[in-house]
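Chapter summary example.
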Amino acid sequence: MIILGINAYHADSSACLIKDGEIIAAVEEERFTRDKHWAGFPTNSIVFCLNQANLTIYDIDFITTAKDPKANFFNKIKYSITNVLSFKFIYNRIVNLSRFSSLRKDFIKNLKLEDELFKTRIINVEHHNSHLASSFFASNFEKSALLSIDGFGDFTSTALGFGINNKISVDKRILYPNSIGIFYTASTQFLGFNNYGDEYKIMGLAAYGKPIYKSKLLEIIDYNSLEINLKKEYFNHFSSGSVSTDWNNGTPKILKLWTEKWISLFGKSRLNNEKINQFHFDFAASVQSVTEDIIINLANYLYEKYNCENLCLSGGVAQNSLANGKITNKTKFKSIYVPSAPHDSGLALGSALYHYNSNLNYSRIKFIKSAFYGGSYNEEDICSYLDSKKINYKIYSDKHLFSYVAKSIENGNVVGWFQDRSEFGPRALGNRSILMDPRRNDAKDILNKKIKKRESFRPFAPSILKEFGEEYFENYQDSYFMQSVFSIKKEKRDIIPAVTHIDGTGRLQSVDKEISPKFYELIYQFYKNTNVPVLLNTSFNENEPIVESYEDAINCYLRTNMDMLVLNNVVLARKN
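The structure predicted for these 576 residues follows.
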């Protein structure tokens, strides 16, 4: 059984391929187009997945997509009647729906197929069912409470349910226009961050503030244990109706979501280049606190209903690692699983898994602890490319590579680390990473000066050898995909200041020897030298999508002041 899953005409376009219960490939279209959050038809991703399996599109049994135009149909009609919608919104929705109705034609056009030979059936899977499947069917839980939270999809912003064996049931949905995701995005915009996907910046800001505006936010959003209501007069989407102006090819554009009534509560919004002050820190902390309250309320409802200690999280809001790290402390859940791509790129995998497990009733796939489903590149091609560009390099044996690179990091160098298959998801997990010594107080300044050029309030993440997790972190749980923030033990904070946020926390990655043998060995060599089993790990990019190919990595190295680039066993180093 071969299934191709896609996320098309939506932000974070992607594709994945499952063959007989094994994930062969999964990748985001932005890795090829080099445009962040690229939306449209994922032609490059589809071709990549097929090539990884040595298949053609004619070999595929089913194509799945995470969009069901029939879902919540009557609620959509009711909403359209009771709200004054703009012509632009209605037009864009018609265009977007027409794209889904013509997916077959798009496959034929973009993949240059023979019409009469292309017989593969296209299966529509509801948006949040796809999100839930991307977490539950990838987890090691036989049964689990399920929670999906995002902006919206198929007219739903939040879905709560339960998974057991091969089946998922949803017993509660929070419908658009009420949405935690939209509340968080509107708040992000109010703070002057207007690009699609900027919500993570609030999490960085929140650590510097106190939630003193929480009571005022209750005039904008009303919530209890299960209900969430956005106050209509504070949000533009009730009339404009859409988070994005278009899901066409390119980077999604977000409409302004907040109305001028926010100013009556909080004063003027922050301009894009305005200096961040204490109000902005406190406002971010208040928004984060409200969001955490809502997530904890929903989690408590699920535990009380199902009395199960496992929880699977998905949806864009499941990338809120601050909230994720608090769930086991503030609820009765003992184990949490968040996939490497809980956001919309994971819909490609989720729709495929939903059809494979729930519709077709095949056995569950193996527990997914790895995100390495992208491209890999051989040394011969890398060297040939470097030779053509007249770039000097040296090849090291495995015996010498890890100790050499670890020593370079110990000496204060910034290292680009490019190994094997790329990660599926938005975070650097050890194969497309920029690495540095976590013991340095000046590491953040060095990285931002040499490469990242990003806001000073944004922290960098610690990657730690799994067996040392409990030694360094409070209430430690394995976190393979950097999806949870935990408190670093007080006695360890001065040892790894570069990855300790101002509030004493860190968004960790647990590095398992079986999953990431090369990355593990590098950290282990650093540990042998320094007695610190941690490296600072940030994504291999410079204000762009994470690098996919060795050409991407080399280009990033050449236009920045990175000290060393390691491409498998090929090493480039600057003369300083």
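To summarize the output: The chain has 22 helices and 22 strands.
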